[in-house]
Amino acid sequence: MFSPPLENAHFACHLRLTPLCGCRILSDCAVPSYFQIWGYKALNLLALVLFLWYNASMEYKSNCNVVYSCKYHVVWCPKYRRKVLVGDIADRLRELIVMTANEVQAEIIEREVMPDHVHLLIEVNPQFGIHKAIKHIKGRTSFLLRDEFPSLKSRLPCLWTNSYFVSTVGGAPIEAVKQYIEKQELYKRPKK
Fold first, then answer.
1. Structural domains of the chain in order of their starting residue, each with its CATH number
2. Distance between alpha carbon 12 and the CA centroid of its chain, in Å?
3. Strand 71-76 relative to strand 22-25: parallel, antiparallel, unpaired?
4. Least buried of 7, 11, 94, 178, by fewest C-beta within 10 Å?
5. Measuring CA to CA, how many Å separate 105 from each of 63, 102, 108, 134, 137?
6. Quick one: which of 19, 6, 17 has its CA closest to 54?
7. What are the φ/ψ torsions at residue 123 (nearest 5 degrees)?
8. Residue 56: enclosing H or E segment and its boundaries?
9. The pLDDT value given to residue 135
10. Would you state the pLDDT for residue 192?
């Protein structure tokens, strides 16, 4: 049985979807008076429609025991914020990020490589965790890029800083975050 909360409805109640009857209201609801004249069958139907409408835009993934939608906006920088992510290095980094994310079963929804930082919109299995995924991506890309481009070894003691920024994307629509990441190239900071 699946009993999700209806957060965006005009009333708050929980449903239980069943194969035969569609749905049932499990808890007592604060039902507006205009629904009381329709009766509970209409209310159940309306609740089901609202539930399906609310979840139609959500895309869920699953593994053996978890159904999830965990999207994160992640930003990290090279050591000393050096502008080394240009040209062939930036192109190779884009490839390596996707390859490494696939190794940990993470999906890169959007990515932008700037000369002095990287933006990712990534979906990660909650059982694996965002910290392990970013640690793996940063470690693997650093090792491979420094191996392929010896100039990175001479300019930096290590490629990435130890820190990174991460934020869940629950409050903002995914499309808004995608647009923000895509437009990062346009919003370069003015030189002082």
1. 15-57 (no CATH), 67-185 (3.30.70.1290)
2. 27
3. unpaired
4. 7
5. 10, 5, 10, 12, 12
6. 6
7. -115, 125
8. helix 40-56
9. 96
10. 59
User: % helix / strand / coil in the chain, to the nearest 5?
Assistant: 40, 20, 40
The low-confidence residues of the chain, meaning pLDDT below 50, are 1-38, 43
Sequential DSSP letters for 97-146: HHHHHHHTT-EEEEEEE-SS-EEEEEE--TTT-HHHHHHHHHHHHHHHHH
* Residue 50: per-residue pLDDT: 52
73 φ/ψ angles, rounded to the nearest 5 degrees: -100, 120
Residue located via tokens 């209806």: 6
Of 80, 99, 188, 106, nearest in space to 145 by CA = 99
Taking CA atoms, 142 is separated from 96, 129, 150, 161, in Å, by 10, 20, 12, 11
